Amino acid sequence: MNHQVLALCTGSARPFRGDEQSAIAKQAVTGTLPITAAGLAGDEQADLVHHGGPDMALHHYPLDHHDFWREQLGDHPLLGEPGSFGSNLSVHGLTESEVLLGDRYRLGTALIEACQPRQPCWKIEHRFGRKKMVKTIMASGRCGWFYRVIEEGEAQAGDTLCKVDDGLEGWSMARIFEAIWGTSTPQDPALLREISELGPLADKLRAKLHARLAAE
Fold first, then answer.
1. Distance between CA 144 and CA 117 in Å, rounded?
2. Residues whose CB is less than 8 angstroms from the CB of residue 175 and which lie 6 or more positions away in sequence, other chains included
3. Which residue of 46, 53, 166, 178 has the fewest CB atoms within a 10 Å radius of its CB?
4. For residue 19, what pLDDT band results from cuts at 50, 70 and 90?
5. What is the separation, in whole angstroms, between the first and last Cα of the chain?
């Protein structure tokens, strides 16, 4: 199924909280953008320890979730912006339950692969000026996900996001997020180990799971 890309969004590192910087404030960009292994041309990350890199090249936060957040936050002005959650892709009709680890999509002329859910952090709450948003994401699973770039290319708003290869059956972004960061207690070490051995999983996340399991 094809999904129209309503906007491609980039951000630049800027003061966010005190001396700390962030590029979470993504804005829609017009025209054709190159897509490289690092992501969209012109997109920045302020914290290269926790953000960016080949397995976080593109962030996708579903536009479908904005209505849920309006119920939680009211008519917050940021919910009218396509990149309000730090998303690079603005798309309707695709959520965590439908996207499998390893799903491949053609975005313009680029080929991208879903490789991990997004772990929410405090910057979302600071950007929106609202407490408990991270807790709500953990409970609801409305986390978004990241793509790596398999083939570089270019894209623009109005292009389609077209699935060209299926990922691992049974391993949706929703299931993986719930197992690692969700509300299931106690966590299942066997399930975490199984996730850590999935081929398309982002390398940094795999290493974190190995470290967690080794510490138990």
1. 6
2. none
3. 166
4. confident
5. 42
Q: Report d(CA 33, CA 118) in Å as an integer.
A: 23
Tokens 């479908």 map to which residue?
A: 64
Taking a C-beta distance cutoff of 8 angstroms, is the pair 56, 202 a contact? yes
pLDDT digits (tens, 9 = 90+) for 77-110: 999 999 999 999 999 999 999 999 999 999 999 9
- Which DSSP category does 110 fall into? E
State the Cα–Cα distance between residues 91 and 83, nearest whole angstrom: 11
Are 44 and 143 contacting, i.e. CB atoms less than 8 angstroms apart? no
Residue 106 host element (H or E): strand 104-107
Which one, of 72, 31, 24, lies nearest residue 51 by Cα?
24
CATH code given to domain 2-185: 2.40.33.20
Site of tokens 């892709």: 89
Spatial separation of the C-alpha atoms in residues 13 and 38, rounded to whole Å: 15
Strands 39-40 and 33-36 turn out to be antiparallel
Picking from 176, 183, 184, the residue whose alpha carbon sits closest to that of residue 202 is: 176
CA 192, CA 184: separation in Å to the nearest integer? 12
Which residues are bridge partners to 21 per DSSP?
15
Copy the structure tokens of residue 185: 């207690």
**Residue 72: closest CA among 90, 59, 85:** 85
Q: Whole-angstrom Cα distance, residue 34 to residue 81?
A: 22
Would you give the DSSP letter of residue 53?
A: S
